[in-house]
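User: I'm designing a mutation panel for WD repeat-containing protein 55 and want to avoid disrupting the core. Could you give me a predicted structure to guide residue selection? Please restate the sequence first so the numbering is unambiguous.

Assistant: Good idea. Sequence first, for numbering, then the predicted structure tokens:
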Amino acid sequence: MEVLHEEMPFDLDFHPSNPLVVTSLITGELCLFRYGPESQPERLFSVKAHKESCRAVRFVDSGKVILSGSADCSVLASDVETGKAIARLEDAHEDGINRLICLTETTITTGDDEGCIKVWDTREHSCCNTFHVHEDYISDMTYVADSNQILATSGDGTLSVNNLRRNKVKSQSEFSEDELLSLVVMKNGKKVVCGTPSGALLLYSWGYFNDCSDRFLGHTQSVDTMLKLDEETLISGASDGVIRLVGILPNRIIQPLAEHSEYPIEALAFSNDKKYLGSLSHDKMLKLWDLQELLNGPQVVNGVEPAESASDGSDDDGDDDSMDVDMAPSSSKGSRSKKVGKGQSSSRPASNFFADL
């Protein structure tokens, strides 16, 4: 199943219970689609949500509300039935918002172009945590519920661990000499895998974030987005347009799953029942793949080289993965380019966004 957008989409998210998928566009629009096994996705609405590019979108409040973050520095709550705005936080950040994720039913996190991370509590209607650790855009984030920590990657080439309970940055890696673009937590929380523009996957051992413990060179081009399939395998989206199934420790490209197009993969997401894999690319197309069909056998995809690892692929670094080692954050050097459409800074207060939710 596929649907063509008029402009390039940046992000997508699936509804937590219904067959709905939402996309956010470079023009600031939100598009909601209903999908089914027997038909092409049906567009339910397309609304102009933001003045500038809408880079991040998520369903919240059990799927009743769509939250979106934009380069215009705002966060918008939209009604899932009508697409109409419920509440808008004009100046959530001083710089354009690049990432937005849900932590719980009542908390979300946003990351901006200058490396600032903010946590919003919908019950208190305000920002409850702010982390200023990175020097460049926040490229990806994930929430580790067991330790109540947010992991973030940045264009400054570092990985950070941000402790919500203590409201402080617990750890930050050394500069990796390359941007970190995506991350997933694998091996029952023992390994953190980060994608880079060179195609290398960097593996960090939990509690030892100063430097990566392993480098996997199986991709030949930039790994822009990743999804964890299970504790041993992930699905990667690369700038060559190929979606791959990747094994972690032992590190190997298990098989190419599909070729979205010849353009970079912008985002990947699973449907709530994991029946479908959604992908977005610079070809302006949303594609919904039957996940089981993709996994059933190797696909014929052009231009896929054999996997190669910089290590033997064994987990023999000797780390005590149960440890939660606390290291002082390091100051990263250098700065990388940000996404186009960066928002303008503003100093207006941002405290009552969730009052109407």
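For picking mutation sites, this is relevant: The longest strand covers residues 39-48. The two ends are 33 Å apart (CA to CA).
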